[in-house]
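Intended use. Records such as the Glycosidase entry shown here are meant for training and evaluating sequence-to-structure methods. They are not intended to support clinical decisions.
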Amino acid sequence: MSRFAVDRLVFFPTDVDLSRSPLAGHLGVETYVLGAFNPALTRLPGGNLLMMVRVAEALRKPVFDEHVHAIRWDAGRFVLDAWPLELVDTSDPRKFMLNGGGWKVMALTSLSWLLPVELSPDGLEVVEVHYDRAIAPHASFQCYGLEDARISKVGERWLMTTCSVSPERHSTTLYSSGNGLDWTFEGIVLDHQNKDMLIFEGLVGGQYWAQTRPLGDLYFAYPPGSEWRAGPSINLATSPDALHWRPHVEPGIRPHSATVATARMGGGTPPILTDQGWLTLWHGVEPKEIVGIYRTYWSLLDRDDPSKVVRTDHTPLLEANPALTAPIDDLMYLRDVVFTTGIAEHGEVYVVASGEADLACRITHVPRETFA
């Protein structure tokens, strides 16, 4: 049951026409949409909203001839790689791990590309799906796909960060646009294993600011009795031009030791300026089985020094809603996951876009007074 009056799924895997996919005609085997989810959100000049949807396209039969197969971009075409079954662990439906390397090495069961989906001003109706403007891998550093776009409008320019995946690096790449619909690749802006980069929708002290989330398997302990928990946190960076980024010396949002619900955390929506400060929605992950429980939380940051948290709420803003996915339960492969990735103003509410269960796009109308 949702706490908000308007809370629904608006775009499903079955809404994607794979005959118009960038992968169409390349592989010679059947694919399907594992998920159409984690949509960036922005308002277009004409008033409609735009979701940049992550389409995870997977092999219908990844295992054959005693091998598991993965899709990879290679010099302008898409190919299949085959891995012997005895070398892999397939316990996670989203990926498989390669055994025996001495460190964690994985490959994906799908390849993701980005699909622009135009919505009505309130975000509740699909107006047009722009297959002609889909964004697919175009270089070796994104040969395993593009994931989880975030869009910020800074002045008269739209900036979109994406996670580009490859054996070379797990990097953050930047695209820019003059209209929110036609995108130009600007380059790699953060290097290996730095995810969930969210550019603030406005300058602070004449500089671009961003939230980042470096990954790793090793963290140093906070002292006994600290209010903080060691682990992934939301960091900050600044830039003079949105291309060259410098980590900020002060920490950003850190996991609290008093709760395991945010033991792992990362950015959700690009921070937007309100009367109370910069509003940012982020995800906290409670450990459970393989994937964990993903929930959405919020914080307000100081408008002049975003390293200072003015106010936050440890009660989840959004949680996974089984009632929403009940009609497509036969497509479910994950539970307990909501991953919020976009926000836009609309009258007395914020239109909040999320990925539900790594499967579909969820739109929630959150009253502005929620954060007052």
